[in-house]
Write a structure and sequence with these properties.
Elements: H1 17-38, H2 41-63, H3 65-68, E1 72-76, H4 78-81, E2 91-97, H5 100-119, E3 124-130, H6 142-147, E4 152-156, H7 158-194, H8 213-231, H9 243-267, H10 276-285, H11 297-320, H12 327-332, E5 343-346, E6 349-352, H13 363-375, E7 378-379, H14 381-394, H15 404-412, H16 417-426, H17 429-433
Parallel strand pairs: 2-3, 6-7
Antiparallel strand pairs: 1-2, 1-4, 5-6
Length: 455
């Protein structure tokens, strides 16, 4: 049995740990059994969140009862606030006080509750703040401000929580949106670089790699920050996403959640690395597809890459929409001078000016990729969708060009040809040019020489 469902061996400040540990152990075992039967990682994470809620609430009633009556509340934040408690996720708590006096009164009880949770083998991340501090942007710890976007009431003064949720957080987001988004964008792109800026790792990290769960959450935060800044009211972030990308991202989230839950149970810790051995086991179980119906590991990993690509597209589009420099800065950006009658170049990204349905042949598509190969600009997410729509519109006549090879060969010798080829691949143009390339699309070969998929 995993450590987290074993009985705690000590008691904290007179708290009888064994009954709570036994209750948690029995319920955690039931949640695991249900997951191994149906493979629903989101249901397992939600059920574990509810279980931990009941334990936290009981501990707070016992050790913080006087303080919780007024001027003090306990708030779930981060993944716990989202009710995404995977088997070994951290329990992130905010102990919120109305003022310094309430904070001091609750200090002893906070310590007791925290020790009791540690005795239950939970990894607890907690902080204590007075409401006034939450009005401030924590520039040395902006992750705290981001975690508040997922805040959820647990116990105590409901009116105090309402002040935090309905007044403080919208105010901070509206006032400091630019800095919050810039920091979130920098953290995201830095994390992507640590993982080679590609989804195609042979042994990916389901949480932190591009297209992983962290990118899904970044997409939620970006949408929610924009909503709070614009209207000062909350909304379900997924409902704010572009319709064309929403459903694919939601399906991908279910797949990735099942994968992370599976990894935690197998490794018995918060380890999100999808190794070859665990890929084989997940495929044999039909995880994320139909439990009990095995898939070849290579096919299962192709499914993973498709889901990661869907999340990456969503996150990429929302990052592209992040406000950039001032209009003067854009005027000063020399790349904007690359714009022509067919394409605009803004902040190093290409946007099409004509509708895909207006194209008569694939000539403008080749012009687009030649621009990438020549100048090193990037396709916007809108441009990627435009290419796909154009290919669907042109159908079998997409490559009816007499000068196809001369134009393609010109692209291949330009300074940024590799960038153009990767862009062609993402937008399905490469497999249209060379149908044989589908054989190696997201193909996994396990040997010493491969770190990424063949393509």
């Amino acid at each position: 049995m995993p450590d987290e469902v074993k009985s705690a061996t000590t008691a904290s400040a007179g708290l009888p740990a064994l009954p709570l540990a036994a209750r948690y152990g029995g319920e955690a075992a039931r949640i695991r059994h249900a997951f191994e039967a149906d493979g629903d990682g989101l249901a397992a994470a939600h059920a574990r969140s509810q279980l931990i809620d009941s334990i936290v609430e009981e501990l707070c009633r016992e050790h913080l009862a006087p303080e919780l009556s007024s001027g003090f509340c306990v708030v779930a934040v981060g993944g716990y606030g989202r009710q995404e408690m995977f088997p070994y996720s951290d329990v992130d708590l905010l102990f919120l006080a109305a003022d310094s006096r309430a904070e001091a009164a609750g200090r002893e009880g906070i310590g007791t509750v925290s020790r009791a949770l540690w005795d239950l083998r939970f990894r607890v991340g907690h902080s204590t703040h007075i409401l006034k501090e939450c009005y401030q942007l924590q520039r040395d710890n902006l992750e705290f401000n981001i975690s508040l976007l997922d805040c959820r009431y647990l116990a105590g003064d409901l009116q105090l929580f309402a002040q935090l949720h309905d007044e403080v957080i919208p105010h901070v987001v509206a006032r400091d949106r630019q800095e919050l988004v810039r920091n979130l964008t920098d953290l995201t792109r830095g994390r992507h670089q640590k993982h080679g800026a590609t989804i195609f790792h042979l042994e990916p990290n389901l949480k932190d790699a591009p297209g992983g769960l962290r990118d899904y959450h970044v997409s939620r935060w970006l949408a929610l920050i924009a909503q709070l800044e614009r209207e000062r009211r909350w909304a379900a972030p997924e409902g704010l996403w572009p319709i064309a990308l929403r459903q694919a991202a939601l399906r991908s989230f279910q797949f990735l959640a099942a994968g992370r839950c599976f990894l935690h149970y197998r490794r018995e810790r918060d380890d999100n690395l999808l190794t070859y051995e665990l890929q084989d086991e997940a495929a044999s179980l039909g995880l994320g597809h139909q439990m009990g119906k095995a898939l070849p590991p290579a096919d299962w990993m192709r499914s993973y890459f498709q889901h990661a690509r869907a999340v990456q597209r969503l996150t990429g589009q929302l990052l592209d929409e992040v406000p950039g420099p001032s209009l003067y800065g854009l005027f000063q950006d020399w790349r904007s001078r690359l714009s022509n009658e067919n394409f605009s170049v803004v902040r190093n990204r290409v946007l099409p000016r004509k509708a895909a349905a207006a194209l008569e042949d694939a000539g403008p598509l080749l012009d687009l990729f030649e621009m990438v190969a020549r100048h090193g600009v990037e396709l916007s997410r809108e441009a990627e969708r435009w290419v796909e729509a154009a290919l669907d519109w042109l159908g079998d006549h997409a490559l009816d060009l007499d000068d196809l090879w001369p134009r393609l060969s010109r692209i291949l010798v330009l300074p940024h040809a590799a960038d153009a080829l990767r862009a062609m691949h993402r937008a399905r143009f490469l497999t249209t040019l060379f149908p044989e390339f589908r054989v190696v699309d997201a193909l996994v070969i396990r040997d010493f020489y491969h770190r990424y998929t063949v393509d």
